[in-house]
């Protein structure tokens, strides 16, 4: 475990150096991150000119939710988005060969080799918005709230990672699924708002079939002290089950790796 | 170090036909064909050997090498490398071997090679002192000093290849697989890379298996060659023996002050007779006799006896087949 932390740090360092090669990106990223969160907060404000509740959530609640959404998206853009689509390239071009000869877990390597650390700005901004929402709400989360929040947001991240990994692992057979990340984008966008806002079958689908809404709603509710131990545990368990499945599937898929010819 | 017994690998290949109708049909009902890439190959390589793996494109060289490196799962047969079964992909196994592919790069494109070395240092858990020692040695042998802090993308192909070799050797592997290490390099750089491989092998007793299209690589590096064609091993033995067996003649070049009028064809096959110079292809066992004959009876300026070029030998091998090997 310590070893993997060290390797992760080294990946981070290499990516940092790599990104600094293109220094001008820093400013662009900073501006776009601030702009993105600014627009999002503004949108929420516009909603609340008309009403003082959104699917049972008050203005401050929705801000916390927005913060959670931004934090989670920042984490995804930091670690997952740079890596998941690349797996396809590795298989297609045969560079997976090098990864498989390295004495690290190959799934770890393909998942975290590339990190876009600018996106950590989004994580920080997200945490900022969460803090702002909590101040507006005049609520100080207890230690348990924070622990449940960390567990549920980690579960959400692991769940997204596992699902994405499962999907990308199919590239061992289907080498031409061109960038499936857009599916994730549209799916994940629904997580921006309270589930209660959606009606009818959309709500059912977003709760049970594609639990995008749950992924952000649950951590937000935890932080607001409205958590439910049972659901939190189920979420954590579900995340672990999917992680296990993704791992099994990866090991299985490696047997079918045929490698690109040189 | 490397033991291979009755190794087989077959791929299921989708049979593609051209044309619209066929394309649509293949969507519904695909035909598959089983391609046997490697058929019943067995061999052993001892510690410290450099073995050349030869064969035309698509013969199964790279497939075999990838099975040895644990990348591909053999269909059947046994492989052990340094006591490990490669496909189990144990960490200890990966730490004792390395793979270099001339056509694929492991260096990080936008940043200097040194950064890749540092990533590898973490991955292979190399401690600081060993890392520094190994790096110093490789930097000296491969003349990397001026390259270390330039972005990889700005390096020439030859410079990049030298860095690839360094990246692959930082953890001091005991077994090294080189797949076309000199492909696309100019003659001078090829020579540099070869000299490095020979020196490195001598210094560290690394077992090296090499595939190459360039005969020069093989003649310069390997005492032993394995020739593979259509997935079968057709020759495994010393390079010299191969030459003798397939090319039972030598090339004899004699320069005279005045070229004598003799029945040349009695001495051997005529390659070329020109002003003051005769080139003959003479049977191995007659070379000594023929050359001493000319030296005694004629005024000879210079005499030169050579093995036929390796390309010629190998081409013949594939054309005529190996009957008794």
Automatic annotation (TrEMBL), chain A:
PANTHER family: SLR0610 PROTEIN, SLR0610 PROTEIN-RELATED
Transmembrane domains' residue ranges: 26-50, 56-76, 116-135, 147-167, 201-221, 227-246
Pfam families documented for this protein: ABC2_membrane_6
The keyword Transmembrane helix appears for this protein: yes
Domain of life: Bacteria
Keyword Transmembrane helix attributed: yes
InterPro entries: ABC-2_transporter-like
Name of the protein described by the UniProt record: ABC-2 type transport system permease protein
UniProt KW keywords: Membrane, Transmembrane, Transmembrane helix
Automatic annotation (TrEMBL), chain B:
Entry-linked CDD domains: ABC_NatA_like
Keywords on record: ATP-binding, Nucleotide-binding, Transport
Domain ABC transporter: 2-255
Pfam entry (one): ABC_tran
Coiled-coil segments on the chain, per record: none
One function term, GO molecular function aspect: ATP binding
Keyword Lipoprotein applies: no
InterPro entries recorded: AAA+_ATPase, ABC_transporter-like_ATP-bd, ABC_transporter_ATP-binding, P-loop_NTPase
Protein name in the entry: ABC-2 type transport system ATP-binding protein
Species in which this protein is naturally found: Parageobacillus thermantarcticus
């Amino acid at each position: 475990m310590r070893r993997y932390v060290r390797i992760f740090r080294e990946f981070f360092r290499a990516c940092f150096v790599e990104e600094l090669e293109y220094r001008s990106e820093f400013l662009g990223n900073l501006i776009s991150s601030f702009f993105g969160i600014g627009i999002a907060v503004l949108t929420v404000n516009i909603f609340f000119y008309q009403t003082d509740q959104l699917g049972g959530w008050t203005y401050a609640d929705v801000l916390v939710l927005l913060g959670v959404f931004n934090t989670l998206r920042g984490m995804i853009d930091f670690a997952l988005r740079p890596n998941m689509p690349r797996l396809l390239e590795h298989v297609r071009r045969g560079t997976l060969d090098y990864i498989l000869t390295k004495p690290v877990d190959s799934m770890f390597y393909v998942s975290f080799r590339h990190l876009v650390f600018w996106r950590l700005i989004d994580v920080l901004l997200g945490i900022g918005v969460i803090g702002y929402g909590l101040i507006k709400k005049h609520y100080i989360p207890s230690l348990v709230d924070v622990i449940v929040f960390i567990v549920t947001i980690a579960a959400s991240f692991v769940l997204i990672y596992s699902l994405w990994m499962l999907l990308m692992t199919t590239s061992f057979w289907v080498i031409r699924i061109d960038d499936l990340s857009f599916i994730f984008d549209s799916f994940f966008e629904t997580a921006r708002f309270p589930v209660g806002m959606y009606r009818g079958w959309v709500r059912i689908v977003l709760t049970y079939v594609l639990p995008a809404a749950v992924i952000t709603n649950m951590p937000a509710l935890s932080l607001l002290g409205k958590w439910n131990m049972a659901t939190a545990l189920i979420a954590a368990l579900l995340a672990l089950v999917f992680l296990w499945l993704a791992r099994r599937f990866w090991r299985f898929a490696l047997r079918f790796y045929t490698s690109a010819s040189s | 170090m490397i033991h291979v017994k009755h190794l087989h690998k077959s791929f299921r290949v989708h049979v593609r036909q051209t044309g619209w109708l066929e394309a649509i049909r293949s969507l519904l009902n695909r035909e598959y064909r089983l391609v046997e890439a490697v058929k019943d190959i067995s061999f052993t390589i001892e510690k410290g050997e450099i073995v050349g793996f030869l064969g035309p494109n698509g013969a199964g060289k790279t497939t075999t090498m990838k099975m040895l490196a644990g990348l591909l799962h053999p269909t059947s047969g046994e492989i052990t490398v340094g006591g490990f079964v490669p496909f189990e992909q144990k960490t200890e196994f990966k730490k004792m071997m390395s793979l270099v592919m001339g056509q694929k790069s492991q260096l990080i494109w936008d940043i200097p090679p040194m950064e890749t070395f540092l990533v590898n240092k973490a991955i292979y858990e190399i401690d600081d002192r060993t890392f520094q020692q190994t790096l110093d040695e490789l930097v000296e042998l491969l003349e990397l000093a001026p390259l270390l802090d330039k972005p990889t993308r700005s390096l020439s192909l030859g410079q990049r290849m030298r860095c690839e070799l360094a990246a692959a050797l930082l953890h001091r592997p005991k077994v090294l697989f080189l797949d076309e290490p000199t492909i696309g390099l100019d003659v001078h750089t090829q020579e540099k890379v070869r000299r490095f491989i020979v020196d490195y092998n001598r210094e560290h007793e690394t077992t090296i298996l090499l595939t190459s299209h360039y005969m020069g690589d093989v003649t310069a590096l390997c005492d032993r060659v394995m020739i593979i064609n259509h997935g079968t091993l057709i020759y495994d033995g010393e390079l010299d023996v191969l030459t003798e067996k397939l090319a039972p003649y030598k090339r004899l070049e004699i320069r005279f002050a005045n070229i004598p009028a003799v029945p040349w064809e009695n001495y051997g096959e005529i390659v070329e007779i020109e002003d003051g110079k005769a080139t003959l292809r003479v049977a191995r066992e007659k070379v000594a006799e023929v050359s001493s004959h000319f030296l005694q009876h004629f005024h000879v300026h210079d005499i030169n006896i050579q093995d036929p070029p390796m390309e010629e030998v190998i081409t013949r091998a594939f054309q005529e087949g190996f009957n008794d090997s």
